[in-house]
Amino acid sequence: MILLYAKKELIMTEFLLKLFVKDYKNVKDSKVRTKYGVLGSIFGLISNFVAFLSKIIIGLLSGSISVIADAVNNLGDIGTSGLTLFGYKISSKPADRDHPYGHHRMEYIISLIISVVIISLGINIVIQGINSIVYPGDKYESFPWVSFIILCLTILIKLTQSFLYSSLSKRINSMPLKATAVDSRDDVISTVFVILGIVISYFTGFTQIDGILAILVSIFLIYSGIDILRQAANMLIGETPEKEIVQRFIKLLESTPEVLGVHDIKIHCYGPSATFASAHVEVDGSKDVFMLHDMIDNLENKSLKILKINTVLHMDPIKVNDPETNRCKKIVRDALQEINTKLTFHDFRIVSGPTHINAVFDIVFPYEETNNKKKILEQLRAIIKKKDPKIRPVVTCDNEYTYISSKSDE
To answer: Are residues 85 and 176 located together in one domain of the fold?
Structure first.
């Protein structure tokens, strides 16, 4: 039944988008994203006000602490919808002197605030629930059918909210809408517990059940709030970019024949529609530098146009088809594979002299090997010395960030 309801809500989502959001399928456009957020926020303001008004009336008339607590929760949801609306308006502002990367991270800040509101409401309900257990109310003399029916209707409102928010958030990868979808889902569970408390209290006379269920609901709310808080904080601190994004980025760069390898990739997300990246690309050092520079410019423009990633590329010229360079490179590659197959390297070049050969390169260390750098370098030097005593490794250590083996390491 819930799946059927969800399907109907998805149809409703499509209808609302067609009605209020022009070019709604172009979700990469920041203006379209903003309209998605505004649509969800206004829907939330109206529906949450209806739910709050209904619950507070029946809560005051019946004296049920769990109903009143649930109404207070909906009052908080009105504020949450207002915050979300404010957040989308701010995040859509263009870059300025003080914010050169735009205001897109305001979405994460709003998610952070929403999580704090949810946790605060959960703590408040715990306090009210304890008071209800210590000072229980009177047993219902007659079954509150009006309250029962209105609470069931508010469940439908909250289900509609949850499915709508979830559908919108998936389309534009929005954390605030995802947070409000979780909050609406929690409200459904909360109201189900309230109805359960009314039924049990009426038929058993155990009025303390009202407070017990309120505490159970609050625990669920606090847990959800902490989870949203964790996700928002991770995005603000800076998470590792998704592997799919990195792979698409590398694939685009390496689709150009002149690019022999890609490394030192750094991708920073300033919001779902604001991604910045930098990378080093290896090229044949014997080719015309102006031609290579033009190729780099074209790749940066291509990355912005296709992947919507603002990109800065650094060009690393390398020797190609040099027998001595290839021989030394193979020795280093085999030595690293012997130590750990996850070790990779780049920026390889040699400086030859009459008595020795300096092999200069960077090694990328996986996270699990970060504390073993000194030991690995000692092993590497020992293995290379056995293979060719003239080769002296000159190594720069890189920590794993978004590195994926490129053509230059093959």
So the answer is: yes
Same domain, 105 and 87: yes
Sheet holding 275-284, edge to edge: 261-269, 275-284, 309-318
What is d(CA 238, CA 401) in angstroms, rounded to the nearest whole number? 12
3-state secondary structure of 282: strand
Does residue 229 share a domain with residue 251?
Answer: no
Work out whether the CA dihedral 191, 119, 165, 34 comes out positive or negative: positive
Residue appearing with tokens 């590329």: 313
pLDDT in tens, 148-204: 777 788 888 888 888 888 888 888 888 888 888 888 888 788 778 878 887 887 788
Structural domain total, the chain: 3
Same domain, 42 and 188: yes
| Residue whose C-alpha is closest to residue 113's, from 70, 75, 73, 84 | 84
Of 237, 266, 298, the one marking the end of a domain is 237
Q: How far is CA 354 from CA 319, 323, 326, 345, 388, in A?
A: 20, 17, 19, 26, 14
Residue 42 neighbours by CB distance under 10 Å: 14
Is the same domain home to 124 and 266? no
Query: Residue 408 — very low, low, confident or very high, per pLDDT cuts 50/70/90?
Result: very low
pLDDT category at 302 given cuts 50, 70, 90 is very high
Task: Please state, in angstroms and rounded to a whole number, the distance separating the CA atoms of residues 283 and 261.
Answer: 7
Q: Which domain holds residue 329?
A: 321-410
Can you give the CATH number for the domain in which 378 is found?
Answer: 3.30.70.1350
Model confidence pLDDT, tens digit, residues 40-89: 888 888 988 888 888 788 777 766 666 676 677 777 778 778 888 888 88
Structure tokens at 378: 């000692």
Q: What mean pLDDT is predicted for residues 79-104?
A: 81
- CB-CB contact of 343 with 366 (8 Å): yes
> 374-404, pLDDT tens digit by residue?
999 999 999 999 999 999 999 988 877 654 4
Helices (H), ranges, 205-242: 209-237
Last residue of a domain, one of 237, 259, 293: 237
How far is the C-alpha of 41 from the C-alpha of 35, rounded, in Å?
10
Average pLDDT over residues 24-37: 80
Mean predicted lDDT score pLDDT of the chain: 82
Helix intervals (H) in 135-174: 145-172
353 lies in the same domain as 384:
yes
